[in-house]
Design a protein that fits this description.
The two termini are about 65 Å apart. The relative contact order is 0.04. The chain is built from 43 helices and 18 strands. The chain has about 1000 residues and is of the alpha/beta class. A hairpin with a 5-residue loop joins β7 (about 285) and β8 (about 295). A five-stranded parallel β-sheet has the order 10-11-12-9-13, covered by helices on one side. A three-stranded antiparallel β-sheet has the order 3-5-4. The protein has a three-stranded antiparallel β-sheet with strand order 6-7-8, with no helix packed on it.
């Protein structure tokens, strides 16, 4: 096999056939392994190489998937290459297979040849090393900052190799031949003094003294402007020698090797320059590339410099008098996009070492300002392309007939002829012949091509140049993922600062400042879209007497912004329509499916959707859904802000809703939304069951799409899903209330129980439950009312609203009494017991706790009764029966240890410790609380650790240990400050009613 890192990442099998490593992440993984061949690379370093310093929560699983894909690719050639070790992976690379290894070996040989003063070998070896380079290292792999130092090492080694090569060539008298190459490297590194010195000496020895002096002036000016410094001693000495035409600078064919005389001046490493050259008769002694004095041996390759050739003969562009200049006028009030302009200028400016054309692709949604950015940047670059500038609108999207590459090729060839009369040769009749002629016309000619509004790769490929010196700037609403070359620049909507600056440019800064509030309303309505802002600016200009308030009111009117965002030929609605109709009216089934998805996705008003949720809405398999959504993303009708999540731009979503209402039937829209709500119900039920196993949040749903329910490998994953989906779950509760299945509103609200066991204090669960209760009452749904009231009682108790908890629980009790469900009745009674404890009615608390346990045991349930016993112990404490409370808490602790749930063990230990504190048993109390704290930290429960530290501080304070108590309270406060979540409610009073087990009944029984 062969691997290439010195350029785009390449892999070839034993028969020299290329192997595809298709995905960017797979290429980044292979690059990270190849930079450490035959060495262990840890999983952490690989994750950093793929995702940077902040890998996602799914990084470990994703890394395993990428490793499996890469292993399959490499194993296709036979033999196991990618080996797993306990802490990472090792990629086996044999001798001679890796270009960086060959490069390093060639440099080592070149250095050895320097020591021997074998300049012919130095030249040959360094040139062989240079031929290994195919472009920028890993040009097509996403390189994180983790890999950057290794890549920089090879780039610096390449520069060193070029220095050695040019120094050897100067030793051999090949000064004339190296002028073009040294010039390219000097242009690439204009502040690199060794290259500059080598160029100056080569020009001087080639009879081009004036150019040598100009070269010195350029480097002097560049150093002053960029670094505020003067050239180094060697360059200054070289300059003085040039001015006096010092004979020591001239090259003389060596005949005898001599040693440098004492006191001879030396030049910097790698430079053969000026006063550093000392001659003794026919022999020449110079400072070698390594910096030590060295004599140049006689060589068959040493020869007299060739005669100097006139510049006009060397540059075919010098005879041309006609160059196209087709760029449209720049937007006079172009605003913002400073970073994007700098990026494009850097990407498109030709470099001496380019091996092919430069290309940049600006992509983005309709109206985001792609064309304006392209024209603005192209005009800044005009002077760097003396061969001319070509511009064409390819009409890939929007009004007008899509441009045919065949016709464009004929136009371009004529445009690029040396005279306005045309090329003077017949233009081929076939597209391939025309493309070949265009590439010929572009050879050795610096031309900038702006191909605006491209539809697809097929439209572009025939139009592209093939040689270095030319650059191409492409814009498209399509992401063009199959374009084989070209850097991508996705264009996003403007941020608020650039929006306000753009509006100020259109309407006047004073006007925007004076009407700041209305200006902010306009910016919100335009949603960062430059086209929308330009339309507002056009309206403001033609109606200068209108206050901005009038325009803001038009945009906020009930009949929609899209119609208001129109002025003359400018229309946001028309702009979106051209992209959508391309899909809807396509002959390709997958594009029509994407148009349908576009319409149906607009039914959801929430904060975007996950891939699985989209699949449920569209009634498609997940893989097919990803393909359809990817196509919408490619044409920028849908945003993909993070992996696996999709949303509309605000204005695009409004257009999609319009198309849905016009083109989808009412039953189809209702069925799609119901599929999504049903999926959310199934998903939340699964997540809650994972977080609180054995504690159903409500009556089992038993419906939903088969096989679509998500699977969560542990409670942490389920809780993370809840947090991610919470805005959409709140929206789902509201949407279900208006759907054909209003019962889904209360089922969804109940299923948030799993979320509430940790995040009860946010109030989200309370809000959803109250909304669901209103829905159930509006539809006279008695079952729904009873279950929501039950859960509201739990939510009120968690928030210490004990009177409200009692009211809700007592209201739902008759329903469960009549239902005959003993286990549910036990749960209601247990929560009533806790509410009575909280309202200081210990007798009622004890009675209800004992009744709850009796009902639970008679139900025959196989679940743990630990939560109900915990409620009984709490009632004993409320009644002042500490001995009985201790006994029951010890029973609860034993059950929790048997179940193995670490969090519940910690809760039981905290309850027991606090009770022992109240009984005056210091050592036992602190032992229990210390173990509870260790478990909290073990499972990473920062909020729980805060509660336990507070309980420990309370214990120390109880026994008069003020300093220790304060230390615990301080640590608890520090932890609370570090917790990214809002702080949990601190324990009060006896403290035993504050833990999650008592808040939510997470012990595995039926209490909650």
């Amino acid at each position: 096999m062969r691997f290439g890192l010195l350029g785009p990442l390449t892999v070839h099998d034993a028969d020299d056939r290329p192997l595809a490593v298709p995905t960017p992440k797979s290429r980044a993984l292979l690059a990270a392994l190849l930079l450490e061949p035959n060495r262990l690379v840890s999983r952490e370093r690989l994750a950093a190489a793929l995702w940077g310093e902040g890998p996602p929560a799914t990084a470990a699983a994703a890394l395993s998937n990428y490793v499996s894909q890469l292993r399959r690719t490499l194993s296709a050639t036979g033999g196991e290459r990618l080996v797993a070790v306990p802490t990472g992976y090792r990629l086996l690379v044999h001798v001679g297979e890796l270009d960086t290894e060959r490069f390093t070996l060639l440099l080592a040989e070149a250095k050895s040849a320097q020591t021997r003063q074998d300049w012919v070998s130095v030249s040959r070896l360094t040139q062989a090393a240079e031929r290994l380079w195919r472009g920028a290292p890993l040009a097509d792999a996403p390189v994180s900052e983790t890999l950057r130092p290794q890549i920089t090492h090879y780039e610096q080694a390449r520069v060193q190799a070029r220095e050695w090569h040019f120094a050897a060539e100067l030793r051999l008298g090949h000064h004339h031949e190296i002028v073009p190459e040294v010039s390219r490297w000097t242009a690439r590194y204009p502040l690199h003094e060794a290259f500059c010195a080598q160029l100056i000496l080569a020009l001087f020895r080639s009879g081009r003294q004036a150019e040598a002096l100009l070269a010195f002036e350029r480097v002097r000016r560049d150093l002053a402007e960029e670094l505020g410094t003067d050239p180094g001693r060697a360059l200054r000495d070289l300059h003085r020698s040039l001015l006096v035409d010092d004979p020591a600078l001239r090259w003389t064919a060596p005949t005898v090797s001599t040693t440098a005389p004492a006191g001879a001046t030396t030049a910097p490493a790698g430079a053969t320059t000026g006063p550093a050259v000392t001659t003794t008769g026919p022999a020449v002694t110079t400072t070698g590339p390594a910096g030590a004095g060295a004599s140049a041996p006689a060589s068959d390759d040493a020869r007299v410099p060739d005669a100097h050739l006139p510049d006009a003969a060397a540059d075919p562009r010098a005879v041309r008098t006609w160059a196209p200049s087709q760029l449209p006028a720049d937007v006079p009030d172009f605003t913002g996009r400073d970073a994007e302009v700098r990026t494009l200028v850097e990407l498109l400016t030709p470099r001496p070492d380019d091996q092919g054309p430069r290309m940049a692709v600006v992509t983005g949604m309709s109206g985001v300002g792609k064309t304006a950015l392209a024209v603005h940047t192209a005009r800044l670059l005009r002077d760097r392309f003396p061969g001319g500038q070509i511009f064409t609108d390819l009409h890939g999207f929007g009004l007008g007939t899509r441009q045919d590459p065949h016709d464009l090729l004929g136009r371009f060839v004529s445009d690029l002829s040396d005279t306005p009369a045309g090329p003077g040769l017949p233009i081929p009749g076939d597209t391939d012949g025309r493309a070949a002629l265009l590439r010929t016309c572009l050879t050795d000619r610096g031309v900038l091509m702006v191909l605006d509004n491209a539809h697809d790769v097929e439209q572009l490929l025939p139009l592209l140049p093939g040689s270095a010196g030319c650059s191409v700037l492409i814009t498209s609403r399509n992401a063009l993922p199959d374009l084989p070359i070209g850097a991508r620049l996705p264009l996003e909507p403007l941020d608020e600062g650039d929006q306000r600056a753009m509006l100020s440019a259109f309407c006047g800064a004073d006007r925007v400042l004076a009407e700041s509030g209305d200006a902010t309303r306009i910016l919100a309505a335009c949603a960062g879209l430059p086209l929308a802002l330009r339309i507002v600016g056009a309206k403001a200009r033609v109606r200068p007497s209108w206050p901005l308030r009038t325009i803001a009111e038009q945009l906020e009117a009930g009949d929609g912004r899209l119609r208001a965002l129109s002025a003359g030929s400018l229309s946001v609605h028309t702009s979106f329509a051209s992209s959508y109709r391309m899909l809807r009216d396509s002959r390709e089934r997958h594009e029509r499916d994407a148009a349908r998805a576009f319409r149906l996705l607009s039914l959801w008003r929430g904060d975007g959707l996950s891939l699985d949720a989209c699949a449920a809405l569209l009634d498609l398999p997940a893989r097919r859904t990803a393909e359809v959504l990817g196509l919408l993303g490619d044409v920028h009708l849908l945003q993909n802000p993070e992996p696996g999540r999709y949303r509309f731009h605000d204005l695009v979503g409004e257009y999609a809703a319009e198309r849905s209402a016009a083109e989808e039937s009412g039953p189809a829209r209702r069925a799609a939304l119901l599929r999504l709500l049903t999926w959310y119900t199934v998903a939340t039920e699964a997540a809650s069951a994972t977080i609180a196993p054995g504690m159903p949040a409500g009556p089992r749903f038993g419906e939903g799409p088969a096989g679509r329910a998500p699977r969560f490998h542990d409670a942490a994953a389920a809780l993370a899903w809840f947090v991610q989906e919470l805005p959409d779950l709140r929206e789902a509760v509201q949407a279900a209330a208006l759907s054909p299945r209003p019962d889904l509103a209360w089922r969804l609200a109940l299923n948030l129980f799993g979320y509430a066991t940790t995040y009860w204090w946010t109030g989200v669960w309370d809000t959803c439950l109250r909304s669901a209760l209103a829905t159930a009452r509006a539809h006279d749904d008695h079952e729904g009312q009873a279950w929501v009231l039950f859960r509201l009682g739990v939510a009120h108790r968690m928030a210490h609203r004990h009177d409200a908890s009692l009211a809700s629980l007592l209201e739902c009790l008759p329903h469960f009494e009549a239902s005959g469900d003993l286990e549910c009745r036990a749960g209601v009674y247990s929560n009533l017991s806790r509410a009575y404890s909280g309202t200081h009615r210990p007798r009622q608390a004890l009675d209800h706790a004992r009744r709850a346990i009796d009902l639970f045991r008679r139900s025959g349930s196989g679940r743990s009764e630990a939560p109900l016993l915990s409620g009984l112990a709490t009632a004993h404490r409320a009644a002042g029966e500490l001995r009985e409370a201790e006994a029951v808490y010890r029973q609860v602790l034993a059950m929790c240890r048997e179940l193995g749930y670490l969090t519940n063990i910690a809760i039981a230990l905290e309850d027991l410790g606090d009770t022992l504190r109240a009984r005056g048993r210091r050592a036992e109390a602190l032992d229990a609380l210390t173990e509870a704290l260790a478990l909290r930290r073990r499972v990473g429960d920062t909020g729980g650790a805060t509660d336990t530290l507070t309980a420990i501080g309370r214990a120390h304070a109880h026994f008069g240990e003020t300093a220790a108590a304060q230390a615990c309270f301080d640590e608890a406060e520090e932890l609370r400050g570090k917790d990214q979540s809002p702080p949990r409610r601190a324990g009060t009073g006896g403290g035993s009613d504050q833990s999650p087990l008592r808040r939510a009944g997470t012990g595995g029984g039926s209490e909650a």
